[in-house]
Structure formats: structure tokens, C-alpha cells
Amino acid sequence: MTQSLGLPYLYAIIITVVGSVVGSLILALNGLIGTSYGIPTMVSLRPIFGKEGSYIPTMLNVIQLIGWTAFELIIMSEAAYTISGPFFGDSTKIVWTIFFAIVCYFMMVFGPLIVIRQWLEKVALWISLATTCWITYLVLQNPINLNLGYIDTRTLLIAFDIVVAMPISWMPLVSDYTRFASTKRGGFIGTFLGYTFANIWFYTLGSALAIIGGTQTIVYSIALMLLGNIALLALLVDETDNAFADIYSAAVSIQNIFSKQKQWFIGLLITVISTIIALSIPIMAYEWFLLLIGAAFIPVFGIVFSDYFIINRGKYDRNSFFSLNYRINFKAIFSWIIGFISYWYFSYSIGFGGTIPSFIIAFTIYTLAKKVKI
After folding, report:
1. pLDDT in tens, 99-122
2. What whole-number distance in Å separates Cα of residue 246 and Cα of residue 267?
3. I want to staple 294 with a disulfide (CB 3.0 to 4.6 A). Which of 19, 41, 165, 268 is the partner?
4. What is the 3-state secondary structure (H, E, C) of the chain?
5. What is the CA radius of gyration of the chain?
6. Are the C-beta atoms of 187 and 35 separated by less than 8 Å?
7. CA 229, CA 282: separation in Å to the nearest integer?
8. Is 328:269 a contact under the CB 8 Å cutoff?
9. Hey, what domains does the chain have and what are their CATH numbers?
């Protein structure tokens, strides 16, 4: 963010804090539906968009999850290559990409409860925490200019969009995991505080690494540090659970449409496609990929907010998740299209930043459409 947008570091910190709080609050509130009814995210859209109407965001979600899986595989292969060197010559990164794809696929087969309880809670969390503390300590040894200076308002708003897009990108997945929470309060607080804290820490750290490393990628910036290869090894530990989550949620999402298909088979297809993409597409379009996610899903969850919290006052009839009569809600589809268009208009036609306007516009149009019965 500091590199591509030319944003001074102190501005990057401020935008990171504000964007993380806003995005994580929206994420946590949306997770309440999954906790309340024990259903994954794409199924939770059925009372809003209709059973068949929910297939549209489902397919977009699968596309973005394939993209995220490919991105995670690229990051892991670069980190592993930096540690190992070219032991397979020009094919080394290909070997690492395929290796991590296989590991993440089998994590998906085991399922979230086993992965979380046996891997994340006992091993991965502590390795990642220790390593992040170490990298933070090393970053603090480097002088970074904290002067505010002048920055264009449009640049700030685009940076805000990028930060908010990170928790927003998990919104189509959130109920896949909050459905396992024991209480609504615990699921909400855990999601909000956990993601806010992590997003602020990692975005702030990433911005600093971008400044320190200059034109180098963050992976190589870490490698140049003291004990950098150990830090990269821990990065691999952390990234595997992200790729696992993407593959698992993509499989769960597809089951919203093809409920009788085996999860292991769907996950295998997702893994193969993501691996092919990781081996053929460069990483440079990352930030704009985040904006694309925001354009697609911020209006969706503006509509979710309206329908669940305003129209239905936080309560759904459980049968509405599985009813075959309620097929497509065209009011929701129309509101989503207008919200999607408004995101791109505000972001690219006038450079204002599309997150807040598209959310409010989709929310307002859907609320009015439901209230006045048009």
C-alpha cells in the first residue's frame, strides 16, 4: 500500500486502524447469522436472494476463493524457494507450489475442527505469533519517516478500500466457521477483536517491510533480516491454514448448489484449478484483486444487513433456508447490481473510494424496495 499508492507510513497506519475496525465490525456482524442457525455463509443468503438467487454470489465466491488459494500458493512457493534455493533448477517453484497444494488439500479433507484443534491451536498459532513478534522487533530497529506531509484525499480513500477489502474478503466465508461457535456473543467478539487486531498488526508490518525492502517483495524483505529464513519458515506455517480455509469454503460454497457432491471431490477440483492459476499468473495484480472482491461483496452484505437486521429484526424462520418456493428475490439482485455499479463509479470514475457508498446504496435501495413493497 505504501509502495503502490505512495502513501506516507503514518497515513498508512491511520488508514489501517480505521479500515480494520470498520471491515472487522461488518465481518463479525455477518457472522452472527451462521452462529444463530448453524449454517455456512452461502446458505445464509437463501432467505435474502432466494435459493436459486443465492447461486450467483456463490459462484462469485468460488471464483474469488480460487484466486485467494492461488495467491497463497504463490506466497508459500516464493518463501520456500527463498529458503531452499533452486534445488530443482528452474522447476523449483513449481515443485513447491504443487507440494503446498497437496498439503492444503489434505488439510481440507481432515476438516476445520481437526485442523483448528490439532494444528492451529497447538502449533501454528504460537509459531506465527513468535515469528511476527520477531519481525516486528527487527522492523522497529529501522528508522521510518513518520512525517504526515501532503496526500491526496482520493489516495486515502483508495487505501481505505484496500484495507477494508481484506476483512470483507472473508465475509463470504465467515459463517462457514462461526457456525461452530458455542455462543453468539463469543462468536461476535472473537471474530471482531481477532480480525481487527491481526489486520492492524499485519498491514502495519507489511507497510513497513515495503518501505524497508524498497522494490523487493515482502518475502525477500523478510529474508534479508536476521534469522530471516526462520521467519519465512513460520510464514509457511501461517499461510497453509489460509489456503486450507479457501479450499474448504470453496467446497462448502459449491455444495450450496450441488449439495450431493462429495466435499473431497469438489476440494480436489478447486485445488487443481488454483494450482494451475498459481503457476501461470503473476502476483502483481494483488491489490486490484482485493478491490474486485470489494466491488462484488460489499453491496451483497449491505443487502444482508438490511434484510437480517432491519427487515427481519435479527430473526429468520429456519425453513426459509431450505424452502424450494422462494427461488429468486429480484429486489436483492437489482440492489446488488446497483451497488456493484456504484462501487466502480465511485472508485474509478471519480476516484472517491467505493466501499462506504456502495454499501449504503445497496442497503438503502433494498430497504426501500422491501418497505414500499415494489
Report:
1. 999 999 998 888 777 777 777 777
2. 10
3. 165
4. CCCCCCCCHHHHHHHHHHHHHHHHHHHHHHHHHHHHHCCCHHHHCHHHHCCCCCHHHHHHHHHHHHHHHHHHHHHHHHHHHHHHCCCCHHHHHHHHHHHHHHHHHHHHHHCHHHHHHHHHHHHHHHHHHHHHHHHHHHHHCCCCCCCCCCCCHHHHHHHHHHHHHHHHHCHHHHHHHHCCCCCHHHHHHHHHHHHHHHHHHHHHHHHHHHHHHCCCCHHHHHHCCCCHHHHHHHHHHHHHHHHHHHHHHHHHHHHCCCCCCCHHHHHHHHHHHHHHHHCCCCCCCHHHHHHHHHHHHHHHHHHHHHHHHHHCCCCCCHHHHCCCCCCCCHHHHHHHHHHHHHHHHHHHHCCCCCHHHHHHHHHHHHHHHHHCCC
5. 21
6. yes
7. 23
8. no
9. 9-293 (1.10.4160.10)
Q: Would you tell me the crossing angle of helices 286-305 and 171-178 to the nearest 10 degrees?
A: 60
Nearest-angstrom CA–CA distance, 196 and 204: 12
Tally of CB atoms within 10 A around 6 = 10
Cβ neighbors of 315 (< 8 A, separation 6 or more) are none
pLDDT in tens, 51-82: 889 999 999 889 888 988 988 898 888 878 87
This prediction has a pTM of 0.79
- 253 close to 61: Cβ distance less than 8 angstroms: yes
Type of residue numbered 344: W
Nearest to 210 by CA among 200, 201, 225, 220: 220
- Burial class from Cβ neighbours inside 10 Å (0-12, 13-18, 19+) for residue 146 reads exposed
- 39: exposed, middle or buried (C-beta count within 10 Å: 0-12, 13-18, 19+)? buried
